[in-house]
Amino acid sequence: MNDPIIETKWTLDGDETSWTSWADQMAQAAASPLMQEIIANHRAAGRDWAVDVGCGTGRAFIPLVEAGYQVIGLEPTLKGVQLSQQRASQANLCAYPILASAARFPIPNASITFVFAFGSLFHLSIMELTSALREIHRVLLPDGTAVLHFLDLEDWRHTLAKEIYPDQAPIPSYQAVVTCFCSQNPIKEWILRAGLQLTKLELRTTPSEAGEQRNWLAYCRG
Predict the structure, then answer these.
(1) Residue of 109, 190, 185 whose CA lies nearest to 148
(2) Fewer CB in 10 Å around end: N or C, the chain?
(3) CA 151, CA 153: separation in Å to the nearest integer?
(4) Distant-in-sequence, close-in-space partners of 65: CB < 8 Å, separation ≥ 6
């Protein structure tokens, strides 16, 4: 009998201090070239609102504001909120970090033009991920756009932590570094179940000394 096809892999490392140490390291970091490219390709038509899911230290704030958005940043850690508030204040940005889980957005229905979820969804437990995608669908305007970032099964970073079953991921997941690696099929299924319309799914690869980074970008409509 052939082995079953593996389409998702979950890993776990770190403890409740992991996010704090990461935030300290990223306090002054700018948005990556890929983040900047995605945002530049989705400029606001007017004074639209964007949501940065898992905004961390606010790396995406400047490119989002430069693209014409007013920004709501959702961040589950107090350290991240403090650092992203500091960044917004220093740069005089229309960006407003909120202490909130990706599983529940404190945002009205159908009020957001652009949802940017980069570097955050794959850190959620499966329960939180399911909730987050439904929340993205709920807050998006009918003609709104969401760009969702996932990690491919073959991304080298899956070797950095021990593999676990999805139901072993702690909730809330920001208490430890939980990472999901997956193929395109689960991504399509998760998005469909959330009620979002998938318009494009592309794999972007970046070589590094440690190995190849393989990023899935899912472009969705509300």
Answers:
(1) 190
(2) N
(3) 7
(4) 71, 93, 94, 95
Which of 170, 179, 180 has its CA nearest to residue 15?
170
- DSSP 8-class letter at 118: -
Residue-level pLDDT at 5? 63
- The whole-model pTM stands at 0.94
User: Side-chain half-sphere of 72: how many Cα atoms within 13 Å?
Assistant: 21
Distance, CA of 166 to CA of 30 (rounded, Å): 32
Give the residue from 15, 16, 6, 12 showing the smallest Cα distance to 162.
12
Token digits of residue 210:
């440690």
Reading phi first (left if > 0) and then psi (alpha if -120 to 50, else beta), residue 58 is in: left
Beta bridge partners of 51: 72, 115
